[in-house]
Amino acid sequence: MFFSRGWSPNEVGDLDVIAHHDQLHMFHLCLPSHDMIAHMVSDDGMNWRATANVLHVGDPGSFDDDMLWTMRVFPWNGRFHMLYTALASREEGRLQRTGLAASDDLMKWEKVAHNPVAAPDARWYEADVNDSGRADWRDPFAWIEGDTIHALICAHENKGPYNRRGCVAHLVSKDALHWEVRPPFYSTGVSGDFEAPTVFKLDGRYYMIGHIVTPEIDVYRTASKLEGPWERPADEIVLPARNHAFAPVVWRSRTLLYNWIAAEFDWHPFHQGYARGIAPPKEAIAAPDGRMILRTFESGWKAVSNGATRTFASSELATESRVFRGEWSALPHGVVGQCSPGMGLLRLPQSHADFILDAKVASHNACVIGALWRSDDIADQCTRLAVIPGRQRVELHRIRKGYNYNAIGRGHKTLQENHCALCPSESFDLQVIAWGPYIEVSVNQRVVLAMLTMFRRTGHIGLYLEDGRVHFENVRLTPLKSPQGFE
């Protein structure tokens, strides 16, 4: 995880990650100026250290003297190459082009002399800034198939309803220096954009991720062949909103997806508005039916663990001092709780600011099941996860004292929610990770929520239910080292 430090910790933009010599190198935009591309290195995939910035806007009058937008780095014939989005002042940044830079070591970069290397081709793409106000041609993503380098570009087709013209343009190259523009690689037919497109393979199938604007979410498509057809799966949403611009990298035999994540500041006394940072990666795997599933980055979390995992004995949990409300009883491998009406709460023996909580959960007609953390003594101020089997929903809530009498809900706010296929009569695995302001929730080994919130740094950790009966088994807690900047 990474947040920029300084006056505006909201500077991280679209990113790219490449593996080299068992390290990960990340390149990212710097907002809001877009005047340079920054570079960081990681040894564990979780913590990052900044190095020298690698690329800056060009001199006045050049093709990239206004802004630099999303980039992609790839190796070719012993050198590294970076395709990037370039904006020029002479068109007031309204015509987007593709620039190219090269490097021997990922540290020092030089722009090629024949820039720009690509621009929208009017045969297939919207290329006239006077048509709609700008010509979209951004977010290059390059990968290698055989002896050919392919690149994807977020573009607009030159005909059809404007708000459904979003497409993925296609570039190819045989030498990494000269690029041929081809007809659209993929057309959405439903959105004005398909931003930050990426392609990667899992178990022989191709997967493509991009950001659409109706609604503003990142979705994926899948195909058995590179040329398509590209299928739109029923579970097309990669992660809920505020997780954007996913970048794949194969590292240590695993396909990891990195992205930036944004949320309302609720943990810093001097900042308002939204925070934007780089989230811990997720591992992408292919399900037997071809769907893409995101799993937590297990080796990364092991790298930041701060002690052994503790499995709580049922006798430690079902004691009078741990029960706040409801009836809780010890079973051989866990506890069973019941409460009606309202919430029954069981507090765990230990409190940690940063942790991984795991449990096996079996609902016996409970309407809501979940966990809460960084809580006060009575769970009136806390972060809370609600699993709602009957509605097949998972929700992340922020609960705090609300002093505005006229505010709906007072201090209760739903921060993020997602669909989750659950059968009320079946048990499921639940995992909650709290690492600084980053919160990640998995159900049955699938990441379903990823969000930023931390209005309280520490407090109680608890299990709860609402209106019914529930069984928690194999309750485990792994403490984590605090992330950079939140020690």
Strand content: over 45%
Helix content: under 10%
Uncertain regions spanning at least 5 consecutive residues:
none
The total count of helices amounts to 3
Class based on secondary structure composition and strand pairing: mainly beta
Radius of gyration: 24 Å
For CATH, the homologous superfamily of the largest domain is named as Glycosyl hydrolase domain, family 43
CATH topology of the largest domain: Tachylectin-2, Chain A
Shape: elongated
CATH class of the largest domain: Mainly Beta
CA distance, first residue to last residue: 13 Å
Tell me the number of structural domains: 2
**Mean pLDDT score, rounded?**
92
What do you see in this structure?
The structure is a single chain. By secondary structure, the chain is mainly β. It has helices at 129-132, 298-303, 314-317; strands at 12-20, 23-30, 36-42, 49-50, 55-56, 67-76, 79-87, 96-103, 109-111, 137-145, 148-156, 166-173, 180-187, 195-202, 205-213, 216-223, 243-251, 254-264, 274-278, 282-286, 292-296, 310-311, 323-325, 327-331, 334-347, 355-364, 368-375, 382-388, 393-399, 412-419, 428-435, 438-443, 446-452, 460-479. Strands 22, 23, 24, 25, 26, 27, 28, 29, 30, 31, 32, 33 and 34 form a 13-stranded antiparallel β-sheet that branches. Strands 1, 2, 3, 4 and 5 form a 5-stranded antiparallel β-sheet that branches. Strands 17, 18, 19, 20 and 21 form a 5-stranded antiparallel β-sheet that branches. A hairpin with a 2-residue loop joins strand 6 and strand 7 (79-87). The protein folds into 2 domains: 12-303, 5 Propeller (Tachylectin-2, Chain A), CATH 2.115.10.20; 310-479, Exo-inulinase, domain 1 (Jelly Rolls), CATH 2.60.120.560. The relative contact order is 0.11. The protein is built from 3 helices and 34 strands. The protein is elongated.
